[in-house]
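Record type: monomer structure entry
Structure origin: computed from sequence
Chain ID: A
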Amino acid sequence: MSRSHALHSRRTFLRLTGLGAAGIGLAACGGGGEAAAPAEGGTLGSVSVQLSWIKNIEFGGEFMADSRGYYTEAGLESVELISGPVDSADALVLAGNVTVGISAPDATGRFIVEQGAPLKIIGTTFQKNPFCILSIEEGTPIRTVADLAGKRIGIQAGTNQTIFGGLLAANGIDPASVEQVVVQYEPTPLTERTVDGFMSFLTNEPFLVAADGFTPVTLPFADNGLPLVSESFVVLQETIDNDRDLLKAFLVAEIRGWNDAVADPAESARLAVEVYGADLGLDIPGQTEQAIAQNDLIVSDDTRANGLFTMTDELVGEVITALERIGVTITAEELFDLSLLDEVYAENPDLITG
């Protein structure tokens, strides 16, 4: 099997919504086997979680929590991890089909603003979104936002174009100075030099072009004026009001699972390859490589101090400003309820591992 296939780029699975085209994947692919919880369930109730993508390393923390019995130890009767891709995790939460959806602020914010949806984000796994402009040393490397001017940039049609427009706006770059070329999610246009840059994930396509013998150069959106977060937990306001203890138990287990996944990328990769994504043709080296890369998006100085999934007031404000730049005007109070996490860490300070 080729390395490119094993990494599962969006050449096969198109991501069309959620953090632009990234928070939620949307094409056909199955999930994989699930490890049986080693302990008998608790009494708080069951939780269903709509994953935003296929069962790969992106959900290493969920795999750790499930395989090690953290959900049941927290008092949940059971947790079902439902494989993506799906059209919209937010829509499934809104319809009452799942308890928790993994999405992103731009997707959730649009549901709230455009439909009056009673949704809230209660925490976020990725403190930085994984979007970047990928270029190669062997072509025309793009190291700064100023380097975008005069370049041909491959952008996937739809929401990704809006997100890229936000990057330009955040940096005062005239869109007319950049030639945007509609591409798919396969980075071949970059390696074939038909574009100078390519909109991608930090945790995916750079590894693909490296495996093909090129030297990747990345320009992260999150570090250049568009600090959106990603892999956010979305629930109904009704669930917060009526099942607060259930959601807090879920968060406790999730934090434990992700603490383990961050500390042991190799084991979370093994679970993705051999157990949860066993039918996906993944490979351990590729999944481990991605796990290590995504740790840089999950862990920050703030999460070391405050715990995983938390967001400082400063980061929340930055996200709200970034959303305005892509046309979503919403207040922090309308989008976020981080009080459950505050309570979880107040009651379980040992979950902050530093």
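Annotation 1: The radius of gyration is 19 Å.
Annotation 2: The chain has 16 helices and twelve strands.
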